[in-house]
């Protein structure tokens, strides 16, 4: 077997982290905190709302806009949780299954973070407007201690995506708005994880995979308006990400030492999911508006991570397509002050038996409160707070280092995610000019 093929078989398990940055706050590694106004009602009416703050969810939101508008938001994300060992086992060549060892509880492996976003919309005529949104929809960092029980499947993972969305919205009639956009995304990722040497008495080796690249998707949508209701429908396409980077292996000893090397120009590809978004806003009284939204995520597109030459391997991911559901309200206390709140339920695309420590994801509830205050006729301040409660779940994906070779070393992962939750605080401003 060639050295490149051996390397492919031993490193496949690490490749998945190119697209997996730990549990986020919408589903899997997707972050939805793209506007503070939306966060305040648990993202329950964005496809049907208007203005630059809703541009990420529906480019039709700016059709027929009368004034130019800009919005900037930032969300501070503070996750907590424990990833626990429940007798995970490893079998080195010639031996029997033995405990994987290491720290049996990894607390708070997902790093705190700040997620910025912004958008601007400018009317060209009384019916046509153009806009630009800049977001970071798939971004996070997970960091396990070097002696964690999860070290063979996850050590440190870093993922950042930057989405630039030029958009156009058109008010076709007084009641119908349509819009379209391109989604130009840059993704960059790096990860490390441990590799077992042939003897438990030897220190672990390590590997690092890092890369980046630019790719393009698209969005389209429409909104229907009358005096008391707005319904919005939009579609955000899946995006195939193509990353080029480097793979470094070090610290392997004895017969495995030949695999210590650096390979430049490794290609990797994976898909992030399409979203089908349906939202509605319903004015019950002059002060009270009810919101609802559901999203279908085609996570089945994230079926595998594929590595090109010289590795030529694939890692099955087998995510499933899932849904999120949200309801909320806006209540105008006065002409200048609006209070809002909402609840969202989101289902994880990860499957039992295939969930690893890189993406310790679970079904979750998101509870939100928020407010907007018109500081001046042209400037509004948005504030929001969210509490995200994750269900306890299993970490149970079996892996094998050096699969298919005489050095094959299976790792039977048996762990749990417990006490997982997150606080998210968002603030933003909207300027009309």
UniProtKB/TrEMBL annotation:
Major localisation = membrane
Membrane topology value? Multi-pass membrane protein
Q: Which InterPro entries does its entry note?
A: OMPP1/FadL/TodX
Secretion signal span:
1-26
Q: Which Pfam families match?
A: Toluene_X (PF03349)
Q: Which SUPFAM superfamilies match?
A: Porins (SSF56935)
* Source organism superkingdom: Bacteria
Listed A to Z, the keywords are: Cell outer membrane, Membrane, Signal, Transmembrane, Transmembrane beta strand
- Compartments (UniProt record): Cell outer membrane
Which Gene3D superfamilies does this one have? Outer membrane protein transport protein (OMPP1/FadL/TodX)
State the family named in the UniProt similarity comment for this chain.
Answer: Belongs to the OmpP1/FadL family.
**Name this polypeptide is given:** Outer membrane protein transport protein
Write down the species: Sphingomonas citri
Q: What is the lineage of its organism?
A: Bacteria, Pseudomonadati, Pseudomonadota, Alphaproteobacteria, Sphingomonadales
């Amino acid at each position: 077997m060639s050295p490149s093929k051996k390397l492919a078989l031993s490193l496949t398990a690490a490749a998945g982290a190119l697209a997996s940055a730990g549990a986020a706050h919408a589903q899997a590694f997707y972050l939805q905190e793209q506007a503070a106004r939306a966060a305040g009602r648990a993202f329950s009416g964005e496809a049907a709302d208007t203005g630059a703050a809703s541009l990420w969810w529906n480019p039709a939101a700016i059709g027929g806009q009368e004034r130019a508008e800009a919005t900037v938001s930032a969300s501070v994300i503070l996750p907590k949780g424990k990833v626990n060992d429940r007798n995970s086992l490893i079998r080195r060549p010639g031996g029997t299954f033995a405990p994987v060892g290491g720290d049996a509880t990894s607390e708070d492996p997902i790093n705190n973070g700040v997620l910025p976003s912004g958008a601007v919309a400018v009317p060209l005529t009384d019916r046509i407007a153009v806009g630009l949104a800049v977001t970071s929809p798939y971004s996070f960092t997970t960091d396990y201690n070097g002696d964690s029980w999860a070290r063979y499947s996850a050590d440190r993972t870093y993922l950042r995506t930057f989405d630039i969305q030029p958009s156009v919205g058109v008010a076709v009639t007084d009641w119908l708005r349509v819009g379209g956009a391109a989604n130009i995304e840059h993704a960059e990722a790096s990860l490390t994880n441990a590799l077992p040497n042939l003897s438990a008495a030897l220190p672990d080796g390590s590997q690092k995979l890092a890369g980046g690249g630019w790719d393009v998707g698209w969005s389209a949508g429409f909104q229907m308006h009358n005096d008391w209701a707005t319904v919005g429908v939009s579609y955000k396409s899946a995006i195939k990400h193509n990353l080029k980077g480097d793979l470094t292996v070090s610290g392997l000893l004895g017969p495995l030492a030949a695999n210590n090397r650096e390979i430049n120009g490794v290609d990797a590809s994976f898909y992030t999911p399409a979203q089908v978004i349906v939202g509605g806003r319903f004015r019950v009284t002059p002060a009270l508006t009810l919101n609802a939204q559901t999203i279908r995520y085609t996570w089945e597109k994230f079926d595998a991570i594929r590595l090109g030459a010289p590795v030529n391997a694939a890692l099955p991911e087998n995510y499933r397509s899932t849904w999120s559901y949200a309801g909320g309200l806006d209540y105008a206390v006065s002409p200048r002050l609006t209070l809002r709140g909402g609840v969202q339920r989101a289902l994880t695309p990860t499957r039992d038996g295939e969930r690893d420590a890189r993406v310790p994801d679970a079904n979750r509830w998101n509870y939100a409160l928020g407010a907007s205050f018109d500081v001046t006729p042209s400037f509004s301040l948005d504030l929001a707070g969210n509490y995200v409660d994750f269900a306890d779940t299993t970490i149970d994906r079996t892996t094998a280092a050096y699969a298919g070779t005489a050095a094959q070393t299976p790792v039977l992962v048996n762990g749990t995610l417990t006490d997982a939750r997150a606080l998210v605080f968002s603030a933003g401003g909207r300027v009309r000019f």
